[in-house]
Amino acid sequence: MPTNGEADSIGGYSSGCLLGGQQLPSRAGILIAHPERKRDFGHPHLVGFLQRLSQQVDSKLLIGDLSQPRGGPIPGGHASHQNGLDVDLYYKLGAGNISVTMINKDGLSLAANVWKEEYEVLLMKVAAEPRVERIFVNAVIKKELCKKYPDNVLLSKIRPWYYHDEHFHIRLACPENSSRCVVQNPVGKGSQCGSELAWWFSSEALDIWRQRDGRQVERSFSLPEACRSATL
Fold first, then answer.
1. Scanning 21, 49, 147, 173, which has its CA 20 to 30 A from the CA of 127?
2. How far is residue 36's CA from residue 38's CA, in Å, rounded to a whole number?
3. Smallest Cα–Cα separation from 173: which of 65, 46, 88?
4. Where are the domains of the chain?
5. What is the mean pLDDT of each run of 10 residues along the chain (232 residues)?
6. CB count, 10 Å around CB of 196?
7. Phi then psi for 226, rounded to 5 degrees?
8. DSSP 60-90
9. Cα separation, 154 vs 128, whole angstroms
10. What is the C-alpha to C-alpha distance for residues 97 and 89, in angstroms, rounded to an integer?
């Protein structure tokens, strides 16, 4: 269960915890894909953001992980989602709420039979939200957006990252009243559709991806002292 009291995001996105977390209600416009995981808790800023977003789009939001009730490291070595400000949204779910990839097997091109323009519209809509600091997507998806919106500075928020072929990861900025939340460095200027994106298709990046593919990464986390009692 979450802690009682005022909401507070403590520490970093990959080394922190959540006080006073709220559970995202499953309601019209929202589908929580895996409620059995109990990773549907977040800072009220995140919960409110998702509720508002669900009212502004035509299709249902397909929600993956937020955070655990008190944040902290997620079993399995997943690094982020620790301080209640991260959420995964699926593009599409198949039977049994199994996620559907948007990328072809070559890892270099979009699966045209499943990718839809509405996904581009949703990504740009989310990027326009002032509270949204970063959106992580597969590099192939960022490349597609760069074709459509080459000079749009909102693309600086949309960051390529490994995997993320069947969902995108939204990260909100630290809340104003969470003084112990660790602020990330600002994203770069411009659309970052040039050399920054090209690296993700280089032999170096592809070798790293092949080494990571399917491998469970074991991690240890050093949490802030303020999280010790919160996550027990």
1. 21
2. 5
3. 46
4. 8-227
5. 94 96 92 95 98 94 96 84 97 95 92 95 97 97 96 96 95 96 93 94 84 63 82 51
6. 15
7. -65, -15
8. PEEE---B-TT--PPTTS--S--SS-EEEEE
9. 7
10. 12
Residue 90's identity, in one-letter code, is: Y
Q: Which pTM was predicted?
A: 0.94
Tokens in use for 110? Answer: 């979009």
What is the torsional sign of CA 85, 89, 39, 215? negative
**Fold for domain 8-227?**
Muramoyl-pentapeptide Carboxypeptidase; domain 2 (3.30.1380)
Beta strand segments in the chain, E: 8-12, 15-19, 22-23, 30-32, 41-42, 61-63, 86-90, 132-137, 158-160, 167-172
d(CA 163, CA 107): 9
The answer to whether the beta carbons of residues 68 and 43 sit under 8 Å apart is no
Using only the alpha carbons of the chain, give its radius of gyration: 17
How far is C-alpha 195 from the geometric centre of its chain's CA atoms? 23
The amino acid sitting at 91 is Y
